[in-house]
Amino acid sequence: MIIQLKEDISEKQKASLIQEVNEIGYKITEVKTQLGDYLIGIGKKDFDIRKIGQKEGIKDIHIVSDEYKLVSKKWKVKPTSIDLGDGVYIKDGDMAIIAGPCSIESEEQIRKVVSHLKENGIRMMRGGVFKPRTSPYAFRGMGIDGLKLWYNIARAEGIKIVTEVMQVSQIEEMYPYTDIYQVGARNTQNFNLLDELGKVDKAVMIKRGISGTIEELLQSAEYVFSGGNEKLILCERGIRTYERASRNTLDLNAVPILKSKSHLPVIVDPSHGIGIREFVPQMALAGVMAGADGIIYETHEVPEKAYSDGQQTLDFAQSARLADWIRKTFAMRKTFELL
Amino acid sequence: MIIQLKEDISEKQKASLIQEVNEIGYKITEVKTQLGDYLIGIGKKDFDIRKIGQKEGIKDIHIVSDEYKLVSKKWKVKPTSIDLGDGVYIKDGDMAIIAGPCSIESEEQIRKVVSHLKENGIRMMRGGVFKPRTSPYAFRGMGIDGLKLWYNIARAEGIKIVTEVMQVSQIEEMYPYTDIYQVGARNTQNFNLLDELGKVDKAVMIKRGISGTIEELLQSAEYVFSGGNEKLILCERGIRTYERASRNTLDLNAVPILKSKSHLPVIVDPSHGIGIREFVPQMALAGVMAGADGIIYETHEVPEKAYSDGQQTLDFAQSARLADWIRKTFAMRKTFELL
Amino acid sequence: MIIQLKEDISEKQKASLIQEVNEIGYKITEVKTQLGDYLIGIGKKDFDIRKIGQKEGIKDIHIVSDEYKLVSKKWKVKPTSIDLGDGVYIKDGDMAIIAGPCSIESEEQIRKVVSHLKENGIRMMRGGVFKPRTSPYAFRGMGIDGLKLWYNIARAEGIKIVTEVMQVSQIEEMYPYTDIYQVGARNTQNFNLLDELGKVDKAVMIKRGISGTIEELLQSAEYVFSGGNEKLILCERGIRTYERASRNTLDLNAVPILKSKSHLPVIVDPSHGIGIREFVPQMALAGVMAGADGIIYETHEVPEKAYSDGQQTLDFAQSARLADWIRKTFAMRKTFELL
Amino acid sequence: MIIQLKEDISEKQKASLIQEVNEIGYKITEVKTQLGDYLIGIGKKDFDIRKIGQKEGIKDIHIVSDEYKLVSKKWKVKPTSIDLGDGVYIKDGDMAIIAGPCSIESEEQIRKVVSHLKENGIRMMRGGVFKPRTSPYAFRGMGIDGLKLWYNIARAEGIKIVTEVMQVSQIEEMYPYTDIYQVGARNTQNFNLLDELGKVDKAVMIKRGISGTIEELLQSAEYVFSGGNEKLILCERGIRTYERASRNTLDLNAVPILKSKSHLPVIVDPSHGIGIREFVPQMALAGVMAGADGIIYETHEVPEKAYSDGQQTLDFAQSARLADWIRKTFAMRKTFELL
User: Which of B235, B280, C213, C286 is the most buried (most CB within 10 A)?
Assistant: First the structure.
């Protein structure tokens, strides 16, 4: 159960409410976010929702049978809108485009990508400064200095920064220079990281785990939300299957399913989803038709020279065409009465 | 290696050619299809293609390093067009729509579906009369009499019939009443069935195996082609993964990959691909954007009363809208310079 | 529900019984096997088992809630014993060893394997004469003549023959020369083949599908049983997963699970299960400890020269040692009070 | 390449050596562990190993083509032995038994488990005080106070502590009370955690990722080793597949494969591997026969009352029997000449 509390609820009213819920056998977790205060009740017994609903200090009460609660559409039907400032949004009914290199490499590289994005009306840039690498001997990113460099260039041009956070200690140092913290596919169930991101007042984009279920992705989002942060975005980026003709198996089924279960916006990453440059545009457009609220893809001036992921990275000409096609496809999708 | 033979090659020329190829260590399989005669050479050593190419009786010679040969784009760049007669095609550059119930149930049901298809300009109807069922106690279909009934109604209206063949003995009895033999996901590697379908002069649509790789699907098509039948269609219908929120995981990555590897047309089945009625349209349109040459989906007047697969079956109103959206999406896709 | 009928039930009694079961909303399938006559009732409603149990002509009645019925342990607690004659059995409480080459290649090869088996007290020989191959250009086996040759040599030495049947038309021609029909992993859901094997009075060993679930394997066995043949053996041979360091992922979990759900004997195939010769013995012994009633593995005089699967085939010295270790491990397992 | 350095190598000699290796196009990582100093060279070109081998200050040089280097058997053939003190080891040729509850719950519970282990000669106890939970509302463990409580009781009885570390900040606080840091299946690719564990002089047991490959597990171990810690143990605990009849699919193939690729000891966790109490013993013994150097399983006085994982936890009577069977099975395995 989710109980939304009134802002002016007294401590005494809250204590009385918690006691009553405990008495029907529900364990209570208090959640305080940027947008509201909630009591989350976990239990299995049936109870009389009206009886509790009449208590003082309550704005609303909902029964949510899913394992995840606060990210469920069952209590919050209205889609969550992520406002990044300067008129940049990620939200249902809109089409966010996020593009940029796999790794931040140099000032020159950043400048070129930023120019490319500006020319094509793209307002959000992706890029990694902390790189999770399977091998300890591989390039691990430019680190916090790379992020500062990037920030100075991007901010001047009104470009928002989307970048991966790998561990708790990075959250604070990254904070001034980051618009969206990305949780990578290997950290989707790094619960300590999720807990800490709940304490931050910036948007968090959670990528689906390498072999994560849709349910687990929603549970991971629940961690951040219940930690206090409602600014959440979900990202489908392909799952691990037996098929090796593609890097991952982009599971576009997840898009309408996530949209039906949760009020959070859903983004598709076709670059990791297929891992083959010449097919990234098709899969991006497929993602749009599947119902995505945004597309995140990799672009670099000279993909062959990228420090990482060059094989799935678009050059600027391809990127420009794709951004155009994404917008046209989305415009058409809006004319259909899809769910 | 694939050697295309001239029609007027003499037996002596052919024998000399085979001998020469054998001498360089290649094993020869002779293939005779509706469209041509071929020698398929299997071996690993390097050889001088010009030397063999100069022999008499040869139209052309190609090196194909893939495990599959005749279905590869490496020797036949031009896409294969499946001509079903009466102006009905499945081919690259076109958008085939195939719709109909999971199971053929009754004359009345057939008539209603046929009318629905006619009204919406859909020229191909799917439906099962032989049903592969996991449980021996489930409904196994109306059998050959159902097919004859269906044929009489559909043919009168110019509707082509797409239906599953489960075993060798059915091929002949189904022949007069079938336009496209469908090989189901459980039979993709039923090699005897594939061999026998190679001897038939009707189109064959091969569904990807339940956990089949893209490579295996192409190898299965190679069986039919090398058996003598070039009229082949490939179908992505979802694969088995750990995810249970959907019936299967529709692998749309397979679409551009198959199109890049083979000259055969590729169809997408969103009904089995996601298994949830309200999301079938999104996945169909995603399939179009991924590059499919056609969409096959399930429709029934009253899906809730369908003998099988009702949960993933569209009603006629949904089907009519979807057919329209598929055509619009395809028209837009054609304006993009996608691969 | 499973109703076991008395042998002397009259047609009238049976008709009355079927009518009564139909009236409670259950659909009846009549099953007649080598060992008994059954009525299988499929339905969902609760009913009074005693009321039906009192009807005349009934030996026993059981409620079986699994999707599979006749292969379930819920009605037949006593393990099924497969008697191949001449004192050769596959059964719970015993350890069957089946060894032999992947493919039957020649008279000389057969003689050498047969001698090796005799010397090591192994009474069952595996080998393929019809080979399912992913590529149409690969060796497809010696066919029925190879089987006859093999039969003549093996029978003289008291060795039983285990060999794969690929299609319905082979069942009859193989019959005189076969002791156990093997259904391969690509045919586990070839339902027509399973139906026809139900009509035969010889043992059938069903391999788990390439990505088949435990439930599906039991359903496939149900096909054969409900077709009339109770002589069934289940075989775990590895499943397809994302892991590529081994050919398949041998799922030994399946052994105790299958044994707990079904009364049928369970065999493990470590050769296909791991696909790496030097590790086949470990996995065979692991299979014994997991609870297998038998082990089937590949052996050849010179594995490197085998027509197929050489990389996972033991030479005779390795095979002799393994057979000894299997017996010792099984003897120890019997001293443990495992389930 | 791996270059083992002499202890008395001079800075000048090392600089010269690094320069020479850089000149042939290899990137150098310096590694300093408890046991030695190494230079790891990453590159692809062929080079003259003798020429570099002649340089001063080198103990030995090895070419290792695997992606992982220091954990490979290619340079260190002798198996790694983990010495926990007081005569407790995890090593090849020995059989480690680690048992205990999923979660540490109370002083009373700890005392009972410790007594049970002592009575059965088990020297290592598992238990979680920091619990990774899919849902933020589930029990997350007793934390560091639970660990201290446990330590006081266990240490007095000579029992070693194996417990999960979830994040970097816990490493230091856990240090005085922990014998083996366990890296859980959700953290196998938490590279920051692995890096930091490289700086610790205590053993680390890395569980295979939920859908991790064998190669990835070795790469994760490479992180810790290259960070400075050679005291590593690998653990197979089941992988995620499509099969749902068991909690995970215990991949015992991984045991001989890991043992053949790496010098590190390999442990099997049958409790998580199958997730069903009555089948844990069979899978444990199967793990022994597959070649494991140890078994880790869950036990609790009253499994039904355990805070977590009760369904896969043995009671003490089952645990006592299993420990005995494990030892007997291992004693028999040693008599076989397995790889």
Answer: C286
